[in-house]
Amino acid sequence: MSRETPRERQPACAIVPDDCWLVYLPEGSADVELLGVENGNWQARWFDPRSGTERDIGAVTVPEDSIWQTPRPSPEDWVLILDTC
């Protein structure tokens, strides 16, 4: 028996090239692994949709395999924001 994740519980991403990434991670989804973020002056932070607060992650350094990873602060819903300085 296969169990599909309902659409409203799946991660979603919006990108404005060379400006901003917004990644919504609903409760129960995996940590972030982004492919396509290029080295530059990117800063990252978590937005907590429950409280409206933000947690700074800092500068994004893209590894050689081009997959940038960061663990979420807790298992609940979070929005990852990457933007250029």
Describe the 3D structure.
With 85 residues, this protein is mostly beta strands. The chain has no helices and seven strands. It has strands at residues 12-16, 20-25, 32-35, 42-47, 54-59, 67-70, 78-84. Strands 1-2-7-4-5 form a five-stranded antiparallel β-sheet, with no helix packed on it. Strands 3-6 form a two-stranded antiparallel sheet. A hairpin with a 6-residue loop joins strand 4 and strand 5 (54-59).
Radius of gyration, whole Å:
13 Å
Query: What sort of overall outline do the alpha carbons produce when their principal axes are compared?
Result: globular
Provide a count of the helices.
Answer: 0
**Averaged pLDDT:** 85
Helix percent band? under 10%
Q: How large a portion of the residues is in β-strands, by DSSP E?
A: 35-45%
Succession of helices and strands:
EEEEEEE
Structural class: mainly beta
Q: Major sheet: order of its strands? A: 1-2-7-4-5
Labels describing this entry:
two-stranded antiparallel sheet, 0% helix, 7 strands, 85 residues, mainly beta, single chain
Topology readout:
Layout (H helix, E strand, L loop, with lengths): L11 E5 L3 E6 L6 E4 L6 E6 L6 E6 L7 E4 L7 E7 L1
Antiparallel strand pairs: 1-2, 2-7, 3-6, 4-5, 4-7
Short description:
This protein has 85 residues and is an all-beta fold.
